[in-house]
Amino acid sequence: MSAVVSQRPQNGVVRAIVGTRSPVAALAVLLLGLVLLFSLTTSEFLTVQNFLGIGSYVAILAIISTGTTFGVVSGALDISVGSTLALAGVSATILVSNGMSVWISVAAALGIGLAVGAANAVAVVKLRVNPIIATLGMLSIVRGIAYWIAGGSGGAMSPVVPEALTIMQGETLGVPRPVWVAAVTIGVGYLILQRTRFGLYAYAIGRSPEAGRAVALPVDRLRAMYLMLSGLCAGFGGWVMASAQGGLNANAGIGIELVVITAIFLGGAGITGGTGSMTGTLMGVLVVGVVANGLALMGVQAFYQLIVTGVILLIAVGLDALKTGGYR
Amino acid sequence: MTTTMLPGASTKSVPRSIGSRLLALSRVPTVLLIVALLLLVTYFTVRLPNFLTFTNTMEIINTSAVTGIIAIGFAIVLIGGGVDLSVGSNVSVGVVVAGVLFENGHAVWLSFLGAIACCTLVGVANGLLITRMRINPFIATIAMLFVLQGLAAFITGGLPSVINSREFLVFRDRPLGIGLPTYALVIVAVIAIIVMGWTKYGRHLYAIGGNPEGARQVAMPVDRMRFGLYTLCGAICGVAAVVLVSFTGQVTPTAGLGREFIVATVVFLGGVSLSGGRGGIVGPLLALLFVGALQNGLVQLNVIPEAVPIIGGTLLILAVAFDQSTRGGFR
Questions:
Q1: Residue B104 phi, psi (nearest 5)
Q2: Taking a C-beta distance cutoff of 8 angstroms, is the pair B118, B97 a contact?
Q3: B136-167 core/surface letters (b: 16 or more CB in 10 A; e: else)
Q4: What pLDDT score was predicted for residue B27?
Q5: B248's torsion region: left (phi>0), alpha (psi -120 to 50) or beta?
Q6: What single DSSP character describes residue A164?
Q7: Chain A contacts of B264, Cβ < 8 Å?
Q8: In which element (H, E) is residue B102 found?
Q9: Which residues in chain A have their CB less than 8 angstroms from residue B305's CB?
Q10: B153–A306 CB contact, under 8 Å
Q11: Which of A12-16, A200-204, A313-317, B296-300 has the highest mean pLDDT?
Q12: Torsion sign, CA atoms A144, A150, A152, A153
């Protein structure tokens, strides 16, 4: 991380946490601390079964976050991912229920993800709408479409889903299959974001789109591609979720975009773009997953988890604001 | 656009007429909105015999009243250059606080006051996060959204309830045939229009919204005003919460859930800009009528409910696209 001179006075502790270490290292420390905390307070935390449970939820979160990281780094937040997940998952479920092969359902889910990403791209790049608002509108539109094809609000799906779709259930080599898929996805995402020029451009555009244009980067086209990646991963995540759960109804993924954003910002990304990393996102996803799981095991009710997630987000962004001088 | 004139400041020293003030503050999109509204009303009146009746019109306004009050708070924050995405959850908190206070035996007025006080405190918290900890308003209020949802659930202990007591359900009264929520909306709207259009405070809000750096350079207390802005929005949400719970009687933590979306749609349709410093109160009110009439008409025409979020989302994107088109937009 480049050294950013902060204009705010910092005491020693703050500087130790924020100043010299990368956010990834700080998150790793936090993660270890959380694991320690939860293993001490609940007996079931450190069991294999529990880790398998965390694994599936975290896996889907990781898949979605991979794509959205590209968007955030390039300065375009995508909050429509939850609806995209639902639409893709519902479509996959319907296709397989009607006798289509699993591969077609995968293709459909990916295609839907790409399509939503493309629609977002049109709104942001052509209509020049602020990405947060554009994806907010898309969130609503796609959710409506999901309800519609699921046959009415509530989207109660037929409980009979053919074996074929449930390919993601169960484990391979003792690890839940979604985890393998997520590992590959986030690995590929890491390579693209941090080892290719395409990924580098995301940082450039995030930091200064004007500078990017000045050196003849096709900023609009790149932005469109990052948004399409975000949609693609959300669609894929939707398929994996549908497969892991044996079918998805149209209410799936409501609110998951906020968890995704929390994870990505925890990982060091800032709202203005240009910062963040795939490893950071991975750590953020793990922290959020562990916190949710640990709290659930402690018998903490759902609303506390919401409060804790919100507070974590505030702390993460607050620390970032301390470092960079914050919002003015 | 970086002149030494602060946007929103009058370029003339002669007193301006009421009409020109209103129009100047509401900008051009309002004209299109009026046209769209007229077209919509015409269409529905032709298709539905009951549409343009007094009862139906009052019905539309009454059911939109709560959203309208929230929208006014949201719009004021936007004009001042900020954004508050926690408004829906704030209203949820207000609803459950009022309900729980009353259910625990407190007087109605105390329950209402307690709710408004709580929501104002939330606004204070938002203000502190943004002006002291310097957290970006989007993120700060999204995080608060989380926290408030959890808080609302916590206050009710997870169990929604219904209040049936006549003295609590004040806002179900219909003096002169017009629902009390409508009166509340009108009062809040009139106050807001006067403050934004005629007071020094309102003008300064336009200034810090349109050009915060410039405002700082002329020694405006930008941070202090921003802090007040979020506090005010919180208070307005408190009022909306009281109207809501007193009308429906439902004490549930999901009362305000998802309202941010329709509020944002209404406000952006109404010509208020995301970048701050532009827009007024009249625009969002017209947009509120438009959206309310649209929803009312669609329901009566038996249009499938799934079409509503699709239409809403499309409207939002188009509205902002249009607003941004004259200024270059997001790059």
A1: -90, 15
A2: yes
A3: bbbbbbbbbbbbbbbbbbbbbeeeeeebeeee
A4: 53
A5: alpha
A6: G
A7: 133, 136
A8: helix B87-103
A9: 147, 152-153
A10: yes
A11: A200-204
A12: negative
Beta bridge partners of A175: A172
H helix or E strand, kind and range, residue B250:
strand B250-251
B177, with CB counted inside 10 A (0-12, 13-18, 19+), is: exposed
Contacts of B316 (CB under 8 A, 6+ apart): A133, A136, A137, A140, B261, B264, B265, B268, B269
The residue to which tokens 């780094």 are assigned: A73
| B319 to chain A, closest Cα gap in Å | 9
Q: Which residue of A has its CA nearest to B144?
A: A310
Largest CA distance in chain B: 59
Which candidate in B146, B260, B302 is best for mutational testing of the A interface (most A CBs within 10 A)?
A: B146
Residue numbers of B between 80 and 139 with CB closer than 8 Å to A: 129-130, 133-139
Cβ count within 10 A of residue A228: 22
pLDDT in tens, B67-103: 999 999 999 999 998 999 899 999 999 999 999 999 8
Q: Which residues of B touch A265 (CB under 8 A)?
A: 139
| Per-residue model confidence as pLDDT tens digits over A126-178 | 988 889 889 988 998 999 999 888 875 444 455 455 666 677 776 666 677 88
DSSP secondary structure letters along B162-218: E---TTT-GGG--GGGS-HHHHHHHHHHHHHHHHHHHSHHHHHHHHHHH-HHHHHHT
Cα angle for residues A315, B330, A227 (degrees, 5° grid): 70
Give me the phi and psi of A319, to 5 degrees please: -65, -40
B64: amino acid identity, one letter: S
Tell me, yes or no, if B71 comes closer than 8 A to chain A by beta carbon.
no
| Token pair recorded at residue A312 | 């974590």
Residue B250 φ/ψ, nearest 5 degrees: -95, 120
- pLDDT at position B29: 62
Confidence of residue A2 (pLDDT cuts 50, 70, 90): very low
pTM (2 d.p.) = 0.81
What's the complex ipTM?
0.77
Residue B136 predicted with pLDDT over 60: yes
Contact A130 B317 (CB under 8 A): no
Per the CB < 8 A criterion, the answer to whether A209 and A125 are in contact is: no
A271 and B153 within 8 Å at the Cβ level: the answer is no
Residue A21 tokens, joined: 């270490």
Q: Are B112 and B242 in contact (CB under 8 A)?
A: yes
Name the residue facing B320 among A130, A303, A325 (closest C-beta): A130
Q: Containing H/E element for A172?
A: strand A171-172
Q: Residue A176's beta-bridge partner residues?
A: A171
What is the C-alpha end-to-end distance of chain A, expressed in Å?
Answer: 22
In three-state secondary structure terms, A165 is helix
Cβ of B146 within 8 Å of Cβ of A306? The answer is yes
Query: Nearest residue on chain A to B330, judged by CA atoms?
Result: A128
**CA pseudo-torsion sign B274, B277, B278, B284:** positive
Please state, in angstroms and rounded to a whole number, the distance separating the CA atoms of residues A303 and B147.
8
* Chain A contact present for B177, CB below 8 A: no
pLDDT, tens only, A270-310: 777 888 889 889 988 988 888 888 777 777 777 777 788 78
